[in-house]
Amino acid sequence: MKAKKRTGMNLTYRQILKWGDKREEEVDPLMLKLIKEKFDLKDPDVRLKYLSGLQEVKLEKPPGLNPLQLDFLRGIVGIENIMTDDFSRAKFSCGKFYTELLDLRFNLIPNPPDAVVSPKSHDEIVRIVGYCNNEKIPIVPAGGQSSVTGALQAPLGGIALDMMKHMNKVLKINPSNKTVTVQAGISGPALEDELNRYGFSCGHFPQSFEYSTVGGWISAKGAGQASTGYGKMEDMVVALKIATPAGVIETKEYPRTAQGWDIFRLFIGSEGTLGIITEAILNIHNYRPQNTAYASFIFKSFGQAVTSMQKIIQSEYGRPHLFRISDPDETDIAFKTKGFDNSLSDKLLKSLGFLPGKRSLMFVSVEGDKDYTRFVLKKIKGTARKGKGMYIGKSPVKKWLDQRYSSAYMRDPLMDLGIMTDTLETSVTWENLLKVWSATHAYVKQRPKTLLMIHISHVYESGANLYLTFLSPMEKGNERNDFAAFHKGLIDTIQENGGSLSHHHGVGRVLAPWMERHLGKTSMAVLRAVRKHFDPNNIMNPGGMLGIS
Ligand SMILES: Cc1cc2nc3c(=O)[nH]c(=O)nc-3n(C[C@H](O)[C@H](O)[C@H](O)COP(=O)(O)OP(=O)(O)OC[C@H]3O[C@@H](n4cnc5c(N)ncnc54)[C@H](O)[C@@H]3O)c2cc1C
Fold this sequence. Notes:
This protein is an alpha+beta fold. Helix content is about 35%, strand content about 20%. The strands form four sheets. A seven-stranded antiparallel β-sheet has the order 15-12-14-13-17-18-16, with helices on both faces. A hairpin with a 3-residue loop joins strand 17 (about 450-460) and strand 18. Helix 4 (about 65-75) packs antiparallel against helix 7, helix 12 (about 300-315) packs across helix 15 (about 370-385) and helix 18 (about 430-445) runs antiparallel to helix 19 (about 480-495). The protein is globular and about 75 Å long. The structure holds flavin-adenine dinucleotide.
């Protein structure tokens, strides 16, 4: 069958690369002002769209599956659920990693799948996996395609398995067990809307919430912005149904067991390399937003803020849900881009010794029963006060929450200005946190004309996640190599100073080269053996994933 004719509007590289609301094409004016000052950009520089990606998508590589194979797959999912047109293949060839976006801007699609297949049920997926295993056709499972680790590329071709189109339903809410059963391709908003209607919430709110799926959250071992209270994906999954080349695995809904190791945990973080997660059972929580207590604090130094954060999380009087600190650079940028810089309140803060270049913001929210949230917030305020933090009201954290997803929409307009921008994140222990922070800070600051924002989020008794966002002008004509060298140096710096390779973005193909150095040969051998068991023909997301395929 011929691919459905699309309107011209949908056929450009930009349509694929643009994150978030496709209409949001401007850099926020205060951010623009800051960037112009820092990077010495003139008005003509910011009027041009650098590598706009507005060209129509065209692939050089023809689809590699033969007509018999395509017919067989059509027989499973229906002719309308297999796409082989250039745009569909290009759309499913990548996620949202910086160099993938650069490739799209250069009109390059290096690793397209041969076809995009959209199954409608668990049984169809079982048949697809069985057939592809026999025929040795690679399968790359795709959720919302928000991966930032190169985890969706198809270097060996094969099919992209589009989980979002049909596999997107809530199957059962169980108020008695406080669990929900979903198909894995359900998106954040669809899940949350349905749960809220019954008085529940999933509690998982990554910045990519609007466009990512439960299957992707589990596979990449994600963390939401309220993870300090609700936990990461590995804390939320109760049971899974998975179609693997070695057969179907369906684990049962028990609170905990001691029946050997938990098989479903092998698939949390497996990034599509072992099988397709078709359904998941997750824990759910009461939805009571009216009870949420908020607080914002400012500290005179990052060190003081970190010490208070550690005391709060270790004091055992209850935990915040959202809990984050911005380092002095990120705090200064927040003041400037929110129009707070040099305001009357800012002048007052400065006169009290909360100085630019040193001060650090802390944001907190506590969710749950009303008595609980009030009690915990009161205790947090006490600890912050003892740690020399000043309470500055609810409004800063609420404003931050208002733009919790949309702030990321600015990435593509920034790239339009010829600005390289990316993020990295790492898990660190308290005793190592300031060391990793200083080392990464020093590394990035070696590069001339750089903006660096670091925050701490996802907080645990034993440590936290350090999250780095950097901006710097692209080296025009050498964009890819320049980024690759800078990025490699930053990952090396994190690793040499004892940070983990990832806390919640996963590994994919981008971080795979560091896996063995990080985990060691024996652990890698275990991962490879597990992979060999489930996927003896190397069809599940093959080609460089996790350093094992
Ligand atoms: C702007 C932005 C902000 C982000 N913020 C966060 C954040 O706050 N927290 C966070 O954790 N991450 C964040 N991410 C990263 C990304 O959103 C997460 O990794 C997310 O979990 C991916 O979900 P997805 O549905 O988009 O999966 P995809 O990107 O489609 O896939 C991710 C991986 O999971 C595999 N996969 C997907 N579905 C299945 C399935 N059903 N069965 C088996 N394998 C499957 C894919 O093969 C791939 O390896 C962000 C990304 C962007 C672009």
